[in-house]
Amino acid sequence: MLKQILATKQNEIERIELPPRYHFPRFSLCTALKNAKRSIGMIAEVKKASPSKGIIRPNFQPVEIAKAYEQAGVDAISVLTDQTYFQGHYRYLIEIKETVRLPVLRKDFIIERLQIEESARIGADAILLIGEALSPKKLHELYEEAYEKGLECLVEVHSRQTLEAILERFTPEIVGINNRDLQTFTTSLDTTKNLLPHVPPSCVVVSESGIANAYDLQRVRAYGAHAVLVGESLMRHDDVMQAVDELYKEVRSDVRPS
Ligand SMILES: O=P(O)(O)OC[C@@H](O)[C@@H](O)c1c[nH]c2ccccc12
Q: What is its EC number (predicted)?
C-alpha cells in the first residue's frame, strides 16, 4: 500500500503549482512537546478519511475541529493534506493556521524538496518524514532542507531496522514511533514498547497511531513516550473536546479496560 501511495505522490509532484507565501506566526513543535501542558504531550490530528478505514468523519469541519482541540488544551495539531488517500487538502492547513495559535504539523508523504517549499509557503510549522518511505540519505537531505526553511520534522519509524539506519546518519530532534504498519495497517502499541529503548535520550519521542483510550495513553506514557499523535479516536467523537478530556482520564496503565 505504501508503495502505491508513493507512486501516486510522485505523479502529483510533477503537477505542483506552488501557492503564494502565507505569513503566519511560527510555533515550535519540539518546544511545545517538551513543555507539554499535561502528563504527556498530545498532537491531535485533523483527518477526514484514511485508506484503511474510509470516511472517519462524515461531517468534516477542519477549522471547527482545530478550534476545539485548541480549547481542549492539546499541544499541537496535525493536518492531513494528502487528497487522494486521506481526502485532505493544504487549504485546511492554511485555514487552521489562520485560526489557532499552536504548532501545526503537515501530515503528508513528503518525498521531494518541492513539497518542502510548498509546506513553508502554506505556513506549516513542521512536516512528517517517513523512514519507511525514504532512504536514510534522502531523508537526511530533506530534513536539512526543512530546517533551513524554518520547518521542523517529525521523523517517523516503524521498525528497529529503519530507526538504526537513520541513526547511523544523524539524530533527529523529534522521532515518531508509528504503531501502525503502513503495509498492513495493523496497529500494536508494542511497537512503541520495543523501539523506544533504542531511541537516543536527546530525542523527543511521539507514539503515533492506534491510541484508542485513556489506558492506551497511559501505556505509551509508561513506555517513556513524551507525546502521542491521535487521530481516529478523536475524529469518531461528535465532541472532540470531550474526546481529548477522556483520553487524559486517570487510569492505571496496568489494568486493561473491560
Ligand atoms: O488515527 P490514528 O490511528 O490515531 O493515527 C494517527 C496518525 O498517527 C496516523 O494518521 C498516521 C501516522 N503516520 C502516518 C503517515 C501518513 C498518514 C497518516 C499517518
A: 4.1.1.48
pTM of structure: 0.97
**What are the two backbone dihedrals, phi and then psi, of residue 103, each rounded to the nearest 5 degrees?**
-60, 135
Any catalytic annotation for residue 12? no
Q: What spacing in Å lies between the alpha carbon of 2 and ligand 1's midpoint?
A: 13
pLDDT tens digits, one per residue of 213-228: 999 999 999 999 999 9
Nearest CA to ligand 1 atom 11: 209
Supply the range of the domain harboring residue 209.
2-12+27-247
Joined grid coordinates for residue 92? 485546511
**Is 40 among the domain residues?**
yes
Catalytic: 45?
Answer: yes
Q: Each residue of 102-153: pLDDT tens digit? A: 999 999 999 999 999 999 999 999 999 999 999 999 999 999 999 999 999 9
- Residue 252 within a domain: no
- ipTM passes above 0.95: yes
DSSP 155: E
Question: What CA–CA distance (Å, rounded) separates 102 from 70?
Answer: 7
Mutate-to-test residue for ligand 1 from 5, 50, 174, highest number of ligand atoms within 8 A of CB: 50
**Predicted confidence (pLDDT) per residue in 189-246, tens digit:** 999 999 999 999 999 999 999 999 999 999 999 999 999 999 999 999 999 999 999 9
Residue 117 lies in a domain: yes
Measured over the CA atoms of residue 130, residue 134, residue 140 and residue 143, the dihedral's sign is negative
